[in-house]
Specification:
Layout lengths: L1 E2 L3 H23 L2 E5 L6 H8 L8 E5 L1 E3 L9 H8 L9 E3 L8 H11 L9 E4 L17 H5 L7 E4 L8 E4 L1 H4 L4 E7 L1 H12 L8 H7 L5 E5 L1
Parallel strand pairs: 1-10, 2-3, 2-6, 3-5, 6-9, 9-10
Antiparallel strand pairs: 4-8, 7-8
The chain binds ligand LXAUTJHC.
């Protein structure tokens, strides 16, 4: 685990690591893909990353998960990314939203599956968060499609999820779409989340604590970033 004294120090350290990984991918393949999480935790990291100098015009950014709400909804993760990441140097990046204004969330997931980056090869960088219920991405305990979303043979890249603790219906990358990222990060802050992570690391059912799938079964060993 990479432990930092403050959230600001973590934000800068993680921004440096992500900028280095994106630059390396651009040098190797001429482009780079980045999938980020929503919620409240990543704001300072987004602000720091937005200032890093790299060839952002060659970076495609998408979300790990999204609520089925339009971009102007205050709970939209797209709005969060637009406000805190897609500015400064990073304004040149291309953003590919998961939300689509289709009639149903199933149709939106199918449309998004066809256009999200990382389709033909693994994402270069994936940043995951975690809720105090042990969810990551929108892999929620009690989710209606949790088993399918955590199945590594799942061919779909974008899935739908409804769960008691999720609020709005969700669109989420499947575990198969994100587990093999070049750089896979779990970013958590605070004592409560550390205790949840420790419990997941100690061993519990994936259905109760879906973060465990990432810790145990991801092809890429996740780097865990934590600050009190
Ligand atoms: O619902 C969500 O929550 C998690 C954690 O959010 P936080 O506010 O506790 O940081 C987040 O990783 C996920 O992307 C988001 O949709």
């Amino acid at each position: 685990m990479k432990t930092f004294e403050t959230g600001a120090a973590l934000a800068n350290g993680l921004a440096d690591a992500v900028a280095t990984a994106l630059s390396a991918a651009i040098a190797k393949a001429g482009e780079a893909t980045l999938a980020v999480s929503g919620g409240s935790t990543p704001k300072a990291f987004f602000e720091a990353l937005s200032t890093r100098a790299l060839d952002w015009a060659k970076v495609k950014v998408t979300l790990v998960d999204e609520r089925f709400v339009p971009e102007d909804n205050p709970r939209s993760n797209h709005l969060l990314v637009k406000t805190h990441l897609l500015k400064n140097e990073a304004a040149a990046a291309e953003f590919v939203p998961l939300y689509r204004p289709e009639a149903t969330i199933e149709e939106a997931a199918k449309t998004a599956t066809g256009i999200v980056p990382g389709m033909s090869k693994a994402f270069d960088v994936v940043i995951l968060g975690m809720g105090t219920d042990g969810h990551t991405a929108s892999f929620f305990p009690g989710g209606d499609h949790l088993d399918a979303a955590l199945d590594l043979s799942q061919p779909r890249r974008v899935m739908t999820m409804e769960a008691p603790g999720a609020g709005e219906a969700r669109l989420t990358l499947s575990f198969s779409a994100l587990h093999d990222a070049g750089l896979l990060v779990v970013h958590i802050e605070g004592g409560e989340k550390k205790a949840v992570l420790d419990k997941a690391l100690a061993g519990s059912d994936e259905k109760d604590m879906p973060i465990r799938a990432v810790l145990e079964r991801a092809q890429t060993t996740p780097d865990i970033y934590w600050a009190p």
